[in-house]
Design goal:
Distance between the termini: 40 Å
Order of helices and strands: EEEEEEEEEEE
Radius of gyration: 13 Å
Largest sheet: 7 strands, mixed
Number of strands: 11
Structural class: mainly beta
Shape: globular
Length: 119
């Protein structure tokens, strides 16, 4: 199992930037992918970005492409989500998640962190 602890987030004006961090511990060697998801008030949870652990390939939701960047620091076992040009519609509770190699399904979740973008 992998334990995920998130940090970052907060309140920012539209057009601003924030960075989220997700520190992983435990069986990180068995990770298939790390991802970021979000849930806005009254909406379903949605995919934001993911990074494949073996080769660091990334992919993004269309709504954040070109504005958000997912990256990793191997030495710190940490995944980041750099969010630029934030919009009010990016306001949500953001979660990092891990998909173990054995299932390739996101089943380990961070505690969530709030991002609020004011207009």
């Amino acid at each position: 199992q992998v334990q995920l602890v998130q940090s970052g987030g907060g309140l920012v004006q539209a057009g601003g930037s924030l960075r989220l961090s997700c520190a992983a511990s435990g069986r990180t060697f068995s990770t298939y992918a790390m991802g970021w998801f979000r849930r806005a008030p009254g909406k379903e949870r949605e995919f934001v970005a993911q990074l494949m652990w073996s080769d660091s390939r990334t992919n993004y939701a269309d709504s954040v492409k070109g504005r958000f960047t997912i990256s990793r620091d191997n030495a710190k076992n940490t995944v980041y989500l750099q969010m630029n040009s934030l919009k009010p519609e990016d306001t949500a509770l953001y979660y990092c998640a891990a998909a173990p190699t054995i299932t390739r399904t996101y089943n380990q979740w961070g505690q969530g962190t709030q991002v609020t973008v004011s207009s």
